[in-house]
Amino acid sequence: MQQIPLDIHAHGRQKCGSAVVSGSPAEVMDMIEDGCPGPFSAGIHPWATQNLGVEGMNLELARLERVVELPCVVAVGEVGLDALRGASLALQEFVFRRQVEISEAVGKPLVLHVVRTGHRLMELCKTLQRELPQGIRQPWIWHGFRGSPQQADQFLALREKNYLSFGERFNPAAAAAVNPGRMLVETDEADMPLSRVVDNVADALSTDAFSLSGIIQANLSRIFPAIYE
Asked: For residue 86, what pLDDT is reported?
């Protein structure tokens, strides 16, 4: 298995091999069957919940359980809560909880989509830490983080295995306040090259891109220890 690319979250088969490419279970399977090398993350996006009834949701969850067993699928996601789009937050929470359970069962990190639901997601993190038989053991990666320094501190304080990923747009004050050992970078759907993202985050940290890249690579080795053994 190849090492995890520095770009922890992206979309589109054109980024296969240079990023962890995220998609639905069906999208990921299509890319694998087309010969895309991965790595991938697969999940049921909050937006997808709007078009899935109960039967469709159960089928999609069962499909996800099969897909995330594949070695080239290194993470579960993106999953989470979105107050602006998708089904009711109650249904989104049900789907989110099930995917947390899947993440724990297969031993792969969770990639989070969070839109205007940060407080509720952090409540769920604390609740699931208590309710799951062995708590939450897998890393949680909040992708495309654009929140405040205070929100960053609150999320990272919940667990040592929580991480924030910064992309094209982010709050420089939040990036400056984050321990670089809990930081990742991504391109998501942006046309901006990852090198520019790394440069921008490095500027916020008053460091250089080479040093930051080394720190992020070390973070990835902790998040994906089986791959870096």
From this structure: 96
Question: What is the tens place of the pLDDT at every residue in 170-192?
Answer: 999 999 999 999 999 999 999 99
Domain ranges of the chain: 7-228
**Beta strands per DSSP E along 32-72:** 40-42
| CA gap 205, 189 in Å, rounded | 24
Give kind and range of the element (H or E) at residue 139. none
Tell me how far apart the alpha carbons of residues 147 and 119 are, in angstroms, rounded to a whole number: 11
- Domain boundaries 7-228, CATH class: alpha beta
DSSP string, 75-132: EEEEEEEESSSSS-HHHHHHHHHHHHHHHHHHT--EEEEEES-HHHHHHHHHHHHHHS
The Cα–Cα gap between 16 and 164 comes to 22
Burial of 28 (C-beta count, 10 Å sphere; 0-12/13-18/19+):
buried
The predicted structure's pLDDT at residue 54: 81
CB-based burial, 121-130: b 16+ in 10 Å, e otherwise: bbebbeebee
Percent of the chain with pLDDT over 90: 93
> Residue 135 has what DSSP assignment?
-
Look at the block and give the residue holding tokens 């708590």: 135
Integer Cα distance of 185 and 165 in angstroms = 5
* DSSP helix/strand/coil, 209: helix
The structure tokens 């099969």 sit at 66
- The mean pLDDT of 195-203, rounded to a whole number, is 98
Q: Cα separations (Å) of 25 from 54, 75, 151, 172?
A: 17, 12, 31, 34
